[in-house]
Design goal:
31% of the residues lie in helices and 30% in strands. By secondary structure, the protein is of the alpha+beta class. It has one domain. It has a 3-stranded antiparallel sheet with strand order 1-2-3, covered by helices on one side. A hairpin with a 2-residue loop joins strand 2 and strand 3. The longest helix is centred in the N-terminal third of the chain and has 13 residues.
Length: 88
């Protein structure tokens, strides 16, 4: 039976792809910690995504959804305390 490390390496290379087009636009690659969180919880917290639009880094949760055997990613942003939008 394969070790956990070998299994995570396989998942990274075959299923989640370290070099993901969606993430590469935000200058991010899936690392082992992220892969483990995505597989176990369906989400991982990332603090250093890059916005091409603003040129700044931002924080968000990366969510994994598997549809028809394909990995789809989307972002969820934390609610800001004291934000006008959060108080509506």
């Amino acid at each position: 039976m394969a070790s956990t490390k070998e299994y995570l390496d396989f998942v990274l290379e075959q299923l989640l792809w370290k070099e993901n087009r969606y993430l590469s636009g935000m200058r991010k690659q899936i690392d082992k910690r992220m892969a483990k969180d995505l597989l176990q919880k369906g989400r991982t917290h990332v603090t250093d995504f890059y916005s091409q639009k603003t040129g700044k880094n931002f924080t968000a949760d990366l969510l994994l959804e598997v549809v028809d055997g394909r990995a789809n990613f989307h972002l969820e942003f934390p609610k800001r305390k004291g934000s006008k939008k959060a108080n509506r």
